[in-house]
Amino acid sequence: MRWESGATNASHLHAEIAARGNTGGFTVVRDYIHRLRPTPGHIQPSTPTVRQGH
Asked: Where exactly are the structural domains of the chain?
């Protein structure tokens, strides 16, 4: 899937599938991609580190 290879721009993906004959609109692609993007609640925060004195 193009998403897994790093293609995450809805405009570019829409242009690619339109060139292959797809007649669906941009908003269909945009809405689909929106569901693939991680939401802020699903991103794991980095573990805090303890600063070491010199």
From this structure: 3-40
